[in-house]
Amino acid sequence: MKYLPLIWAGLWRKRVRTVLTMLSVAVAFVLFGVMHGVTAGIDQIINQMSDSRLRIQSRVNITEALPIAHLGRIENVPGVLGVGYYNFVGAYYQEPRNQISAGAMDMSRQTALFPEIKVPDGALDAMARTRDGALIGADLAKERGWKVGDRIPLRSSIWMRKDGAQDWTFEILGIYSWADGRVPSNEFWINYQYFDEERTFGNGTVTIYFARINDPAHSAQIAEQIDGLFANSANETQTQNERDWLRGRIAQIGNMAFFVNAIIGAVMFTLLFLTGNTMMQSVRERIPELAVLKTYGFSSSAVVLLVLGEALLLCGVAAGIGLGLARLAQPSIFRAIGAGGLALPWSVIGTGLGVAAVVAIISALPPAWRTQRISIVDALAGR
Amino acid sequence: MSALSQMGAVTGMNLRSIPRRLGSSSVIVIGIAGVVGVIVAVFGMTRSLSQALVDTGRPDRAIVLRSGAQNETSSTLLVDAFATIKNAPGVARTSAGDAAGSAEMLASVNLIRREDGAQAAVGVRGVEPTSATIRPEVKLIDGRMFRPGLREMIVGRGAQHEFKNLEIGDHVGLRDSVWTIVGIFESGGDANESRLFADAQTLMSAYKRTAANSVTVLLESEASFDEFKTALTTNPTLSVSVERERDYYQRQSEDANTFFDLVTTFVGIIMALGALFGALNTMYSAVSARTVEIATLRAIGFGASGVVSSVLVEALLLSFTGAVVGAAIAWLLFNGNTIGIGNNVGTLVFQMRITPALLGSSVLLACIVGLLGGLLPALRAARMPVATALRATA
């Protein structure tokens, strides 16, 4: 530690070069932090998903509805504690570009299945009493400035009303939110029974069922049992726990990890080359100074360590700055892709600092090694 | 000596000395190559994705959706509206004399991707027989056309390339029904090539649907669009929106690309910044390595402009070399690759095309970065006090 000032002074010998090297290393680690942060964040979301809740959808595709008659049969499967359902309602407010993500469901079943949904006292009773009532997410309420008691006319390009009216008007009875803030609270929830009675087609069907099970360890067997109930019927199902479902859903986007790694690989290679060159140049220029250190009695290995220490300090500080910036940017990036604010995990920062250390050592080792062979007399004479 | 010939002499001398500074010069070349390579790859992917979508639409075709629907999946058109739409003014006729309109249904089926065995969605488009007139770009390359009334499908080459079990004779399970693949088609690498096509009537009856998602019509000419649109939107019995097919797909590509554009712009800016710092660093050290040489030149009467231009030309040349290397590597690695990007209703399979325009603009960007990186060091070189610099030892 007592050599820190010496290392620090060596670093600032050529101020411009050090600043520029630091900036390029920092920039590379901003990219590293953000890209790994996104993939790590997604993994984190996947791991936090419940494995004791199952999602039951059509085997053909999520866009295929399932009959509401499946409800009773799923409830009777041993190990299933409770079942809820959800019908996707694509809607918009006033203008088609104001898309509203609406869902029709049995509200009391839904809140029993998802204890992480926070609903104000009395709102559930109000929903049970008011057929055309709605609960809206806190984010949606904030975005649109809607409040309890407002009557909101929604339109849908998919669902038509039996009475021929264009508008589906709902009275807001309460504001819900997801407890942990990781899921955006931006949906418009309505009563399934009312919606199903009013729509012209698709009656008696739902988009998806949710089931809570007694033991996550048995989720595969229970899922198999549920799918077995409807095998070879007109409405075959595909049952997965929430965690596996999300994993599959993200895999559908395409092979993103490959792109992330390829980009980071290219950046790191470039970076290594750049710092390596700077290090070598710096050592070359200072051979007479290093010879002075040796004259004072510094051992060869101490000089090697000094050079290595300088590289480590340079890369460490720069990587720290870059990763810090990435951490600051991360929550807004996640909000931009609609996944709630998520902090850059410490594991990514740790890996980043580790990579920085590797870059520093690989780039500083060859010139540091060369200092061992310095002949003091030659170096001092400038030969 | 004129200023121009001075510049030429100093620059030439400098360039000839690059081999002696190979290590630090290659930092610029490799740094810029990395940046250009990544930028070409990332932008190449998003541009190709847009192109595949935009190519699907033609200006002389129109697509009719339920008013308020943003895309086909979120649109429902009831059977009663079909005839009114197809027989509206401005719609072309087939050789048999029918209105060239096709009421189409879109469904999705989950299939297994070849690459990783993961499940992903593929779009199934139910089309009417008039589709052959409306979409002449759809050409069978193997097998035969499906027969209306039978549960048969033809598969686009892109979908077949991306997914397992889509060969002729293979079976695909849709809702309560099993369909046989009887042919393979191509349509110029557009979005339809990532889908399965079946007969609309047969598909709708298998799904027990009485509504379609959209009606696509071939117009008599591009100019008949307004006439067609006015006829439909002023008809009080209809509640539809009418768009030129080209505009519709343009909009789809913008929707698909908002996310990717954000990512590519971010990556591009960050990498260009990194390259700029790298170039500055290299050129500063190039100048500092030439301190004595530059001072000597100044002492024997060479002007500042010669010194400045020698540094700028070196930076430009090195970054140009790097850009060409990076662009070539990206082109070799990625041009012609097939990529599938999907959501839960379908997967778009497209070929990555790295266009000369993209290559040109990224090389240009690299040269700008190189010039900027050379500017400050060049000014420093020109301003160096001759007497001190001559005594420099480094």
Major sheet of chain A, described briefly?
10 strands, mixed
Please give the count of helices of chain B.
Answer: 12
Structural class of chain A: alpha+beta
Give the overall shape of chain B, derived from the CA principal axes: elongated
Q: Strand fraction band of chain B?
A: 15-25%
Low-confidence stretches of chain B: none
Measure the end-to-end span of chain A. 33 Å
Multimerization status: heterodimer
Shape of chain A: elongated
β-strand number of chain B: 14
Radius of gyration of chain A: 30 Å
Mean pLDDT of chain B: 88
Spans of chain A of at least 5 consecutive residues whose pLDDT stays below 50 are none
Number of domains of chain A: 2
Explain what you see.
The complex is a heterodimer of chains A (383) and B (394). Chain A has 14 helices and twelve strands. Chain A is α+β, with helices and mostly antiparallel strands and 383 residues long. Chain A folds into two domains: 170 residues, no CATH class; 162 residues, no CATH class. In chain A, strands 1, 3, 4, 5, 6, 7, 8, 9, 11 and 12 form a ten-stranded mixed sheet that branches. Chain A has a two-stranded antiparallel sheet with strand order 2-10. In chain A, a hairpin with a 6-residue loop joins strand 3 and strand 4. The longest helix of chain A has 37 residues. Chain A is elongated. Chain B has 394 residues and is α+β, with helices and mostly antiparallel strands. In chain B, 51% of the residues lie in helices and 20% in strands. Chain B has twelve helices and 14 strands. In chain B, a hairpin with a 2-residue loop joins strand 7 and strand 8. In chain B, helix 1 packs across helix 10, helix 2 packs across helix 10 and helix 10 packs antiparallel against helix 11. The chains are: A alpha+beta (383), B alpha+beta (394). Chains A and B meet through helix 2, helix 9 and helix 10 of A and helix 2, strand 3, strand 4, helix 8 and strand 13 of B.
